[in-house]
Amino acid sequence: MAKRILLYAVLAVGAFVSVFPYLLVVLTAFKTQAQLSGTAPWLPGLPPTADNLAKMLAGDFPRYLLNTAGMTALLTAGQLVFTTFAAYAFARLRFRGRDVLFWLFVATMMVPSAVTMIPLFLIMRELELINTWYGLLAPYVLGTPYGIFLMRQFFKTLPAGLEEAARIDGAGPLTVLVRVMLPLCRPALGTLAIITVISSWNSFLWPLIITSSDDTKVITVAIATLKQGIGVDYNLMMAGSLIALVPMVAVFVFFQKHIVRSVVLSGLK
């Protein structure tokens, strides 16, 4: 009993530390400037106000939300399609240099993304894709090493007999992939989709570098630009952060099982 009480106490402290920043976001978003400076950060402002949220929603912020949703949808669709094709080729098709090419591709996961930002920007500049949707999506829409690795490992766990039986019946590689393999890959596809949605929605550095106009601005960049030269309006920043947080909370509420499964697949497989 003592060990169990100690365990739950440690878990409660860890949960509080994890949730506390989000609590500050909510409390600050419903405070006025006077309440922000006159009360402790962890205490609510009384009476609470929704003026900060109304001000954000009355401006261009809904436009940035739509931009972010569009970017997330396109990146997720591209990841699911192109990553699946690449992973199936690496897992099932036989061609010279397959394993060497795969591990060289996966080795790029060890390179921090910040290192490749400047080369990517120079490439997009030469292609005249700066401040365009094409430049925003191009580096990631065709798949990522992590996604290909995840799907390849899942493909390799599927019985080879199913694929061989389909080929005996006259099915080609594309038919085998679409009609036999993909229905069995729903857990892995769901995992990849959730990971892509979360990472795309929270993407900041590349959109900040490649975009500059309101037509392509996403919410992370929009929240960062609320910092003015003479100070920071924390109320508006927290209101924007709260609005941006709501879709991710909804994703967590409705797809808890898939998120847990994504941790299991990515951590153990």
UniProtKB/TrEMBL annotation:
InterPro entries per UniProt: MetI-like, MetI-like_sf
Record carries keyword Phosphoprotein: no
Cellular location(s): Cell membrane
Pfam families hit by this protein: BPD_transp_1
Entry membrane topology: Multi-pass membrane protein
Residues annotated as transmembrane: 7-30, 64-88, 100-124, 130-149, 189-209, 236-255
ABC transmembrane type-1 domain sequence ranges: 65-255
UniProtKB keywords: Cell membrane, Membrane, Transmembrane, Transmembrane helix, Transport
PANTHER family documented for this protein: ABC TRANSPORTER PERMEASE PROTEIN MG189-RELATED, ABC TRANSPORTER PERMEASE PROTEIN MG189-RELATED-RELATED
Protein family membership: Belongs to the binding-protein-dependent transport system permease family.
Protein name as annotated: Carbohydrate ABC transporter permease
Species this protein is from: Nonomuraea helvata
